[in-house]
Known about the structure:
The complex is a heterodimer of chains A (70) and B (336).
Chain A: H1 2-41, H2 48-59
Chain B: E1 2-6, E2 13-18, E3 24-29, E4 34-38, E5 44-48, E6 55-60, E7 66-71, E8 75-80, E9 86-91, E10 96-101, E11 107-112, E12 120-126, E13 139-145, E14 150-155, E15 161-166, E16 170-175, E17 181-186, E18 194-199, E19 205-210, E20 214-219, E21 225-230, E22 235-240, E23 246-251, H1 263-266, E24 270-274, E25 280-284, E26 291-296, E27 302-307, E28 312-316, H2 319-323, H3 327-335
Antiparallel strand pairs in B: 1-28, 2-3, 3-4, 4-5, 6-7, 7-8, 8-9, 10-11, 11-12, 12-13, 14-15, 15-16, 16-17, 18-19, 19-20, 20-21, 22-23, 23-24, 24-25, 26-27, 27-28
Amino acid sequence: EDAERGASADREVVEARRRQLDEWCAWRAAIEEELLEERAFLGLPEDPLAVLLATKTPEVPDDAEEQIIE
Amino acid sequence: MRPVLLAGHERALTQIRYNLDGDLIFSTAKDQHICAWYAHNGERLGTYHGHVGAIWTVDVDPTSTMIASGSADNTMRLWDVKTGKNLKTWEFPTAVKRVEFNEDGTKLLGVTEKRMGYLSNIVVVDINPDVNAEQSDEKILTIVCDESKATVAGWSYLSKFIIAGHEDGSVSQYDAKNGDLLYNVSVHELNTPVTDLQWSNDRTYFITASKDKTAKLITAKDLEVLKTYVSDTPLNSAAITPKKDFVILGGGQAAMDVTTTSARQGKFEARFYHKIFEDEIGRVRGHFGPLNTVAADPTGKGYASGGEDGYVRVHMFDKGYFDFMYEVERDRQNRL
């Protein structure tokens, strides 16, 4: 009986985690999409950091500190 | 995890920041020096001299060109990472407790202390990303925190909101364009200060640490508390790890608040919690005093902690860290 109770408690914990994980993933998907839409609406690139870093690399390939971003 | 010990500071650490590439670490301490280090071997890249008081805060711009700092000498300063040159100094009536660049490095905010009849302010200046350019004196925005002083603040995604944490345990959302207060929510226990605020990589959510012994994961858009991490010690700092869904908390009872100061009783450990399930999953020992600051490498390879003991400890995650998964996470991954 104890083992039975233990097993159902475990199941509850696992089910609760599954719910938490699903909720988290759903929220992330929604906010990521919203962010992309807002960026598109403002005419901004999808990934702001990738663009900044790309601008810096070609100018001074092995001297990261001296780039100029207009 | 094998830590690298950075022993360049003579006094308590106040803040640590990684650059975006995760290869450089910037640290500030009460000893008036800002240090830059190589993350992979702990070698010192340089120091930035000029402040004449304890330094409370540092941040690095997204291209690792410039850093900003705030100090008890009532100035906020901008520095050239490479040459160490002090590019600009902004003066205030009180200490600058927090600085942060926005996501594209074109704006910088500073949080000033409440003292001597001055209220705590959040000020914003424009930054010219060209290191050779003249920087502007003008404060384009000043937010006066008259309800409760701001202890920390930062920029949300799209530089849309300025989010601040306060001494009374609440968090505020301001319109970053005009400084209007949009929301103020009590997230931590009343009158337990918010001690840290750090962002997720995309700045859509953040984590706060508080003296009430909890850390909270909160959305930038509507200040909804998503998660609460409960610890057994007052917290000074909290960071979100990229790649893995963990958060790192740091704190500990200050020596003057405990009768015995053994590392165990003082609880001077970095604590790892699962970001989604809120469980504590591990601790890392090593410091001889409270952890004042923790920072996660934005590329997910490791983390660093800075202590009241004057040391920075840099940890590289090992395979076990990356392999660790809850059963439900593995299930989900297999289903996708």
